[in-house]
Amino acid sequence: MLHPKQFKVNEAWIAFKLNNEPIRTQQDGEFDFLALMNAASCFILGSLPVPLAQGEPTQLESQRLMQEAQAHKKRWPKKLFVPSEQPAQFLTAVAARLGIGVVRLAEKELSLFIGEAQDSFKELRATQ
Questions:
Q1: What is the pLDDT of residues 78-89, one digit of tens each?
Q2: Are 114 and 92 contacting, i.e. CB atoms less than 8 angstroms apart?
Q3: pTM of the full predicted structure?
Q4: Any idea which fold 4-126 has?
Q5: How far is CA 113 from CA 25, 41, 55, 118, 119, in A?
């Protein structure tokens, strides 16, 4: 199983859904929130609401999310981990064009990294 101690800061990022259930709004429908996290520090570098009907961020949204994340350290990671269960065609294509190696693996393999962020997001939603 992967562990944050295996990585240097900005060596690898993780793209994942913050929410386990769709976020429902009356005006705009249902959304998922996609986040990018630094694997070493577990710091959230950026996030993006994605309409559930859309399924994944567009190419433009993917580019913006990657640029938002890159703004924190002014460099790109060597790897991007993405859960294999998560649609991410455009995000992985953007990463590949930037020379970032994309690694798809089961979300459970990333639970040590993303579990706390997902739990915090769930708690935040419960208080609203």
A1: 999 999 999 999
A2: no
A3: 0.92
A4: Nucleotidyltransferase; domain 5 (3.30.420)
A5: 28, 9, 23, 10, 11
